[in-house]
Amino acid sequence: MAEDILLYEQDGRVVTLTINRPEIRNSISAPEMLDALEEAFGRIGRDHGVSCVILTATGTAFSSGGDVKDMAKRAQRMQEFPAGTRHWYREGIQRIPLAISKLEVPLIAAVNGHAIGAGCDLAMMCDIRIASDKSLFAESFVKLGIIPGDGGAWYLPRLVGRSRAFEMAFTGDMIDAQTAAEWGLVSRVVPHEKLMDEAKALAQKIARNPPEALRMTKRLLLESEFSRLDTLLDMSAAMQALAQATKDHEEAATAFAEKRKPVFKGN
């Protein structure tokens, strides 16, 4: 079942994960989807033959986030036992941002359509976002009388700034791909039919670099969001010692001196 709802394809050092539930607009809240995503990110993290990941979806939506019909069915039960709802979030959707936060390789969201609610947050959890010109984004939780329970309130202001984050979260309104680019929510907007070509070209460009240097660079960038400068400098010095001890670093320096393309082996 998991293989059907989340497609896993590898081309060289690039893995493409495709959410495959178009019949429910690629909702990610079902337990089987959460299991599949968490398992896939864990698998990638343990596979040192992977240097970059693309996350996309089938159909016209990247992800509608939560299954609203399922929310309606659970509403009364959640009113009767709020503590159970707390556990439901911590043991459910919140597993995804935690799993992604542990992923050391670069993660690209190829946003092929609507990214709504938790679907918008899922895109924000990725390191780079490329949007189809048909995509739309909304931090729409308030329209359902709920809040972003999956970390959206952490990601959104860091990407678009406080004022625009508040506007998106307080109104719940959709923004189009071009607005998302202007606000910094996505890196670039491309014609819909070229989305995967652009995402794969970027992923391959990233994956051509030394694998261990990529992983350590991502870790430093993530740590910089909440570390003091002196702490990050200490961490940078330690990681630089590791990086400069790799054969890939020696190969890069030698290839530069010899004016040829380097051949990296991940060691």
Percent of residues in beta strands?
Answer: 15-25%
CATH topology heading of the largest domain:
2-enoyl-CoA Hydratase, Chain A, domain 1
Q: Which architecture of the largest domain does the CATH hierarchy give at level 2?
A: Alpha-Beta Complex
The domain tally reads 2
Approximate shape? globular
Spatial strand order of the main sheet: 1-2-3-5-7-10
Distance between the termini: 36 Å
Q: Residue share in helices?
A: 40-55%
Mean pLDDT: 93
Q: What structural class do the secondary elements suggest?
A: alpha/beta
Order of helices and strands: HEEHEEHHHEEHEEHHEHEHHHH
- Name the CATH superfamily assignment of the largest domain: 2-enoyl-CoA Hydratase, Chain A, domain 1
Please state the CA-atom Rg, rounded to the nearest Å. 20 Å
Poorly predicted spans: none
CATH class of the largest domain, anyone?
Answer: Alpha Beta
Strand count: 10
Number of helices: 13
Task: Provide keyphrases for this structure.
single chain, 267 residues, alpha/beta, 2-enoyl-CoA Hydratase, Chain A, domain 1, Lyase 2-enoyl-coa Hydratase, Chain  A, domain 2, six-stranded mixed β-sheet, 13 helices, globular
Write structural notes for this entry.
This protein has a six-stranded mixed β-sheet, sandwiched between helices. A four-stranded mixed β-sheet has the order 4-6-8-9. The protein starts with a helix and ends in a 10-residue tail after the last helix. The protein contains 13 helices and ten strands. It has helices spanning 2-5, 31-46, 68-80, 82-90, 95-101, 118-125, 152-160, 162-171, 177-183, 195-207, 211-223, 229-244, 247-257; strands at residues 6-11, 14-19, 52-57, 61-63, 107-111, 114-116, 128-132, 136-138, 174-176, 188-190. It folds into two domains: 2-207, 2-enoyl-CoA Hydratase, Chain A, domain 1 (Alpha-Beta Complex); 211-257, Lyase 2-enoyl-coa Hydratase, Chain  A, domain 2. By secondary structure, the protein is an alpha/beta fold. α6 crosses α7. The chain is globular and about 65 Å long.
